């Protein structure tokens, strides 16, 4: 628990205080306020994908194996597992939200907090389902570094969590637009600091739509798991 | 039904390698059946196919009259299993693990409560029912898994190297529980082990598998007679040779190590 909070705290303190003055000089306002939703999203995506990936050993050594030989449909197991991971990742997001308050983050409108929670939940759901789908196709952890370096890190860095999505060079612009996490970060900004790039409605539909797609793919792959 | 497990010409290929190669055998209802073989012989692959975890490449399996490929749920209701690696939820108590199993297998509530008490008493864990499983020793976890596997009144009980890494006292006690339940409820027991004296003592029938093929099956006496040896261990060595099987370190072993490191 403490371990998984280390990274977001580091981002908040090092980047938040480090880039704060430059951000201000550029006339872009308070960087901590800009960064906090990004770091919350980062905490969620890491926890969510990892809880999905844990499937790799759960099905071999864990409690999951007991459920795989029980007379229960694989779809139910997959959905239960995904909702469990989603809940944990959402809680992680909430804890980081409270941490951001400690370093000076102030949400603009407290009435929007329930909507921020919905965005957190959808983001968590989307990436837990993605982690589960990936883990269903992997036999061991050899691909793990690949996932870390070529999936999670790029998703995070190209999501607009750290910098605004305005006026980006072509390729970065395209990548950030097809990155589902961008919409999670943007949704959190829309609800927490009332600043949005895509618009909250778009964020909401993209997150929901992609979640459904990943859940369907994940369920299919999960039903095909052979131990 | 006399034959509770029927296997005909069962084959499992991984790419070109036949892990299980055209095997056939039958297990009678109420029998204790030992499935023996060196490392990598095809024991676990066979158990996985019998228990719906793996689809056969070809051949026929009947578990309690049902086919594991097309009638998964009927097959799953018919057996209980203890895996080689513990599959308990460490964050739950012993009782909660039992209870959850009852929910998964749809055991009626009053029956479930009665059955959990009865089984936990048999494996001497009733006093510890409210303790978290993560505080349990390896032997206690095994006992709990045995009790759990019997909860839904299965017809067949599978054990895949259940005594690996347990001390002789625990092993002995464990087999006492299993054979007691086998007698009491006429449950067929199908197990694998590397301890020949266990198989010799408890199994009524034995099949030896090597390189994916069953090389002999029969009672302990028949095996000893046909190899002209005095113990099952000697018979086993005559049948499978004395060469040590240097299994290539497989991904499973790496995974097992990694998990241990991750968790501690």
Written overview of the protein:
The complex is a heterodimer of chains A (227) and B (264). Helices cover 76% and strands 0% of the residues of chain A. Chain A contains 10 helices and no strands. Chain A has helices at residues 2-25, 31-53, 55-61, 64-68, 74-102, 113-136, 144-157, 170-178, 180-192, 200-223. By secondary structure, chain A is an all-alpha fold. The model of chain A has no long low-confidence stretch (mean pLDDT 90). In chain A, helix 1 (2-25) packs antiparallel against helix 2 and helix 1 packs across helix 5. Chain B is of the alpha/beta class and 264 residues long. In chain B, 41% of the residues lie in helices and 23% in strands. In chain B, the strands form 2 sheets. Chain B has a 6-stranded mixed sheet, sandwiched between helices. In chain B, strands 2-1-4 form a 3-stranded antiparallel sheet, covered by helices on one side. In chain B, a hairpin with a 2-residue loop joins strand 8 and strand 9. Chain A binds chain B through residues 56-57, 60-72, 139-142, 226-227, and chain B through 48, 51-55, 72-74, 76-77, 79, 81, 83, 85-90, 101, 104-106, 148, 251-252, 254-256, 258-259.
Q: In summary, what is this structure?
A:
The complex is a heterodimer of chains A (227) and B (264). Chain A is mainly alpha-helical and 227 residues long.
